[in-house]
Amino acid sequence: xxxxxxxxxxxxxxxxxxxxxxxxxxxxxxxxxIGIDGVLNHSVPGKDKFxxxxxxxxxxxxxxxxxxxxxxPEKGVISSLEEIDAVGHRVVHGGEYFSKAVLVSDDVIEKIxxxxxxxxxxxxxxxxxxxxxxxxxPNTPMSVVFDTAFHQTMPRxxxxxxxxxxxxxxxxxxRYGFHGTSHNYVSHRVAKLMGRPxxxxxxxxxxxxxxxxxxxxxxxxxxxxxMGMTPLEGMIMxxxxxxxxxxxxxxxxxxxxxxxDQVLDVLNKKSGLLGISGTSSDxxxxxxxxxxxxxxxxxxxxxxxxxxxxxxxxxxxxxxxVDAIAFTAGIGENNSLIRETVLSSLAYLGVKVDxxxxxxxxDEVMIxxxxxxxxxxxxxxxxxxxxxxxxxxxxxxx
Length: 398
Ligand code: ADP
Description:
The protein folds into 2 domains: 2-146, ATPase, nucleotide binding domain (Nucleotidyltransferase, domain 5), CATH 3.30.420; 196-383, Nucleotidyltransferase, domain 5 (2-Layer Sandwich). The protein starts with a strand and ends with a helix. The protein is built from 15 helices and 14 strands. It has helices spanning 59-70, 106-114, 123-136, 156-159, 165-171, 180-194, 247-256, 260-269, 272-277, 283-291, 295-319, 329-334, 336-344, 355-358, 383-397; strands spanning 2-8, 13-19, 24-32, 39-43, 50-52, 86-91, 102-103, 142-146, 202-208, 212-218, 221-225, 324-328, 365-366, 375-378. Helix 7 (247-256) packs across helix 8. Strands 5-4-3-2-1-6-8-7 form an 8-stranded mixed beta sheet, sandwiched between helices. A 6-stranded mixed beta sheet has the order 11-10-9-12-14-13, sandwiched between helices. It has 398 residues and is an alpha/beta fold. A hairpin with a 2-residue loop joins strand 10 (212-218) and strand 11 (221-225). It binds adenosine-5'-diphosphate (ADP). Adenosine-5'-diphosphate binds at residues 209-211, 238, 282-284, 329-331, 334-335.
């Protein structure tokens, strides 16, 4: 089947047309600056990249441009829209409504809207993308795959915060977790690589990208994850602070004469690696600056690694053991130093890193030695493929 995967942001739209049999993409691209001016970057394996700077006033125009380029006789990969079997949409927040992907219906759209309060920057943009596709391809089945869904199996003790229970009941304040599609995909890949049923395994997945989260997956089900009601909690990230004492918010507000919104903006956009280093949110910059002796960049790297080590330790405790630890996303897949630094702090678990395998990049690889008690892996994540696969499964079971 050919599945068009759409990830719609407030001014951008990422797409991939995936052949679910070969598991490869036929074409992919990104529309940016929607509503500002507009630029579409389109690429097809084996062909030159194509850039179109035609205006994209609305998301509907962006979806139209994507459908047009996919069916273009020269730059396209399909001869008509009929060849698209389904569209899979990434949606950030499914609240407590959705514990798995679902086919789009009016009821589903309404519930995604109800979750907008919890993800005001993302859900409305996701909905715009869904509605634009529904208008332009009214007869094509569509699915929605939620970032939060995989984490809905967390037990109450893991998702409740220690605050008045009425806030959970009235406002839905609880841990939801994000990057669920990636945690689900990677944990299944690890089970496959180990040649064991996922039901028998305790896996910790470290998704380390610009946004980072760690999850504990016991028997294929998420039992805890580091992001919370919003993606601000947990790891030290590119620009997000991750965990901190909540009283700090008021303290900064007073000292800097800021509103709560302004402090939250600092914690989301000016903290993390960027905040500590004072120079960059990009991990590659942090690495090169610390190699050159920049103390602040070193401090950022150390704090980033230490937070990961602490979470892994707590998730080993939460699951009463661990069989495998996996690293994924931009930093986790590509950087051997962070994997080595983290895993060398886990010698107490019986993890032994194989330095040669850990130096490999780009492929799924077991980076621990054969006799390592706990296995470690680097696994490139592929959220688009996972969305396509979930969409195919939904269609087949419909
Ligand atoms: P997101 O999808 O959350 O925007 P990514 O998963 O693409 O983020 O990860 C981006 C991060 O990965 C950046 O901090 C970037 O520096 C880092 N990264 C990408 N490639 C490498 C590499 N080869 N070595 C180290 N870090 C890398």
